[in-house]
Specification:
Layout lengths: L1 H22 L3 E6 L18 H5 L2 E9 L3 E2 L3 E3 L3 E4 L5 E4 L6 E4 L4 E5 L1 E4 L8 E7 L2 E5 L2 E3 L9 E5 L3 E9 L2 E3 L8 E5 L4 E9 L2 E3 L5 E4 L7 E6 L2 E3 L4 E6 L5 E6 L2 E3 L3 E6 L3 E6 L2 E3 L3 E6 L3 E4 L4 E3 L9 E2 L4
Parallel strand pairs: 1-2, 2-5, 3-6, 4-7, 5-8, 6-9, 7-10, 8-11, 9-12, 10-13, 11-14, 12-15, 13-16, 14-17, 15-18, 16-19, 17-20, 18-21, 19-22, 20-23, 21-24, 22-25, 23-26, 24-27, 25-28, 26-29, 27-30, 29-31
Length: 320
Amino acid sequence: MRLVAIFGLVFGLLFPLLASQSAHAQATRTWISGVGDDANPCSRTAPCKTFAGAISKTAAGGEINCLDPGGFGTVTITKSITLDCTSTLGSILGTATNGVNVNGANAIVALRGLTINGTGVTPGLNGVRFLQGARLTIEDCVIANFNGSSPNGGGILINNASGTAKLHVTNTVIRDNGAATSGGGIIVAPTGASQAQVTLKNVQLIGNFRGIDYNIAGATGGSSVVVSGGAITHSIENGINVATNGNAANLMVEGVTISNNLRGIVTNGAGANTRIGSSVISNNSTAVAANGGGTIQSYKNNQIELNGNNSTPIAQATLQ
């Protein structure tokens, strides 16, 4: 009887601790809902309300899924995670702030099926700001109306200060971002001893101040941007703008429609190396322009026509 009593006493002391640890355990998969509550455990039957509420209850490398349509709030991501709303409408309203901040050392982050909108009385700063991380993938998203003033105003802004920011965007619409004289759909602007590696596949960049603003003048390392498929249209200024302080700013454009921008592709500075293949560049005031020692070369299989200045002939790139 004495052993039973001692066991009961020990169990009584340990049970609250065990229960507390269980309550605070992080799940690999969590759920959010438009009618959820962040006080919930974020399970499928008791979902949370916001990404910010669910992320603390989701293990590193885990996934947050959307059960039904909702506005799920802005979020800062500091660990590897996937936010996936592909089965429904998952919205983030980033008025006066960033929609998603990615700022985690070695974090591998994926965003899928999200609508990220910066509209409001005070415009959003950036749709997705990539400060630090191993890799960011964005799939099947819409990012629009982030009109913050410089250095903000990007649908996607890369401005890591160290390491190599790796971005892959596919099947995504990025529209109406940038202020009156700055910003763009995608801003690639690493600083200090940093680099960026960007791959865009079937991305639609529509009505931004600049479609892609690729500016590594503030960095000491080289970077690369590859654009394949998709379109860059109706930019207020340049469809693609490249600027460098002499470091390699490599740009490859393949199978892209660049039309109805003020200018198509403009490069500035020695080290800005652009290659164009199988693309349509049409109905811009100027098709392409290379300034300050930058180079633009063509694989001679493009359709460059009906621009105010077709900028042809363009030097031939080496065919392999």
